[in-house]
Every structure is written in structure tokens, then in C-alpha cells.
Amino acid sequence: MQTVTSYPWSLRKMFVFFLCFILPPIGAIYILMNKEALQKRDFILYVLFAAINISLMIFDRSMWMVAGHYVLGAIVIVVSNMNKR
């Protein structure tokens, strides 16, 4: 059975996802700076989400590329929430 860790407001899930969604490079740096404070599972999830959004910034912003990245990001969030229950 996993224990749920209570994080300060600056490391809560919605804040980190918002930061990685709006400003992916800054969000990735923020995650790497707080690596010790996060559980391994949360760290991997946040780095994966930041990497998905950084790739969206780097590659072409065609409609299908953007739609595919948003679908992939939504799948990552849904799967991570399903595994915690």
C-alpha cells in the first residue's frame, strides 16, 4: 500500500502541471531543482509531461501535431491518476 505524501503548495500536482503546460522549459527546471522533495513516481510523471510539452514547442505547430500532443498529455495525466487509486 502506498502512502500519500503531502506536498507544499508549490509542489502540488495542479501547480506543477500548469507550470509545465504554460512554460515547459521553466517547469522542467523547476522539477529538476525539486527532485529530492518529490517521490520517484511523481518525479517521472512530471518530467514526462514536461518533455511532451517541450517537444511541442520545438517541433512544427501544425494542427495535427498540437492535437496529438494534447491527447498524449491527457493520456499521461489520466493513467497517472488511475494508478493512484
Helix content: over 70%
Major sheet, described briefly?
none
The rough form would be described as globular
Q: Kindly name the structural category.
A: mainly alpha
Strands, count: 0
Description of the structure:
The chain has helices at about 15-20, 25-35, 40-60, 65-85. The protein has one domain (about 10-85). The protein is an all-alpha fold and about 80 residues long. It has four helices and no strands.
Layout of secondary structure:
Layout: H1 13-22, H2 24-33, H3 40-58, H4 63-84
Helix pairs in contact: 1-2, 1-3, 2-3, 3-4
What's the gist of this structure?
With 85 residues, this protein is mainly alpha-helical. It has helices at 13-22, 24-33, 40-58, 63-84.
List keywords for this structure.
85 residues
